[in-house]
Design a protein that fits this description.
With 241 residues, the protein is α/β, with parallel strands linked by helices. It has helices at 3-18, 39-42, 67-71, 87-98, 104-118, 134-140, 146-155, 178-185, 194-197, 213-224, and strands at 78-84, 126-129, 164-166, 189-191, 201-209, 229-237. The protein has two domains: 1-45, no CATH class; 47-237, Rossmann fold, CATH 3.40.50. The longest helix has 16 residues, at 3-18.
C-alpha cells in the first residue's frame, strides 16, 4: 500500500474512534467499515416492485396515471424515482437536507446512477440539479442534489450543467398543501443561459418528488426557454394516497 493511502486510512480510523459512523437511516452507531446504513435500515433501500404512474413514476395502487398527472398541466416529459419516500428512506433524505450530512449525497448519487443505467436513461444532452436559492445555499452550505447530479452525469457520460437558478427565496414546501406549493413555486426559477439549453434534452435531478410542483415548474421554465425534452430523476417519491 502506498504511504499516502495508508496515512489516509489510519486517519480515517482515528476519526472513526472519536466520531463513530452513524446510520443515516435510524441514527444507530455503526461498526468500523459498516458503510452508512445498518442491516435493518438497508432492507428499506430495496427498490419497491409496485405499480408506477407511466408519466411521473410515482408509486400508485391502480392502473393508469396517478391523479396528479391526470389533473395537472405537465411540462416534463417523463419522471423516474428510485424509492418510496417513507421510513428510513425519508430519514436519510431529511438528514442529507437539514442535518448537515452532505456525505449522504454520494450514496444517493451511486444509487441514482445505477438506476439510470439499469433503466436506460440515456440520450440526454445535459444533466442539471434543481437549484437552491443563494440564501438557502448560504445557510446550508451545499445543495443536496448537486452531488447526485454530477455522479449521474458522469455515469451517463453527459455534461453536468447549472442550467437553472432559483430567483425567489420560496418558503419550504414541506408543510404546504398542493395548491400552496403550486403558488409558492411559481416563477421561482430562471434559465442561466438560453442558448446553452436551446434544443437540448435535459435530465433534471432532485431528492424527492411529492406533488411534482417543483420539477414541473423547472421543466416549464426550461421548455419555455427552448429545451426540447425534460425528464427528471429523483431519489425518492411520495406514493399516491
Amino acid at each position: 500500500m502506498k504511504p499516502m493511502k495508508l496515512m489516509k486510512e489510519i486517519a480515517s480510523d482515528i476519526v472513526s474512534l472519536v466520531y463513530p459512523h452513524i446510520c443515516v437511516g435510524c441514527g444507530s452507531v455503526m461498526p468500523f467499515g459498516g458503510g452508512i446504513l445498518c442491516a435493518e435500515c438497508r432492507a428499506d433501500f430495496d427498490e419497491p416492485v409496485l405499480d408506477r404512474c407511466p408519466v411521473c413514476g410515482r408509486i400508485i395502487y391502480h392502473r393508469g396515471k396517478c391523479r396528479s398527472c391526470n389533473g395537472t398541466r405537465l411540462y416534463f416529459d417523463r419522471g423516474h424515482s428510485v424509492f418510496e419516500y417513507k421510513d428510513n428512506v425519508r430519514n436519510a433524505v431529511l438528514n442529507c437536507k437539514y442535518r448537515n450530512m452532505k456525505h449522504i449525497g454520494r450514496y444517493f448519487g451511486e444509487i441514482m446512477a445505477d438506476y439510470a443505467e439499469k433503466n436506460a436513461l440515456c440520450g440526454f444532452d445535459m444533466v442539471t440539479a434543481v437549484p437552491l436559492h443563494k440564501n438557502r445555499m448560504r445557510q446550508r452550505g451545499y445543495n443536496q442534489s448537486d452531488i447526485p447530479a454530477a455522479m449521474v452525469a458522469s455515469r451517463l457520460n453527459t455534461p453536468c450543467v447549472s442550467a437553472l437558478e432559483r430567483v425567489v427565496d420560496t418558503k419550504p414546501q414541506n408543510f404546504l398543501s398542493r395548491e400552496e406549493r403550486l403558488k409558492n413555486i411559481k416563477r421561482a426559477f430562471a434559465v442561466r443561459d438560453k442558448e446553452a439549453i436551446k434544443g437540448k434534452s435535459i435530465l433534471l435531478i432532485d431528492d424527492i418528488y411529492t406533488t411534482g410542483a417543483t420539477v414541473n415548474e423547472c421543466a416549464k421554465v426550461l421548455k419555455k426557454n427552448g429545451a426540447s425534452r425534460v425528464e427528471f430523476l429523483t431519489f425518492s417519491c411520495r406514493a399516491e394516497d
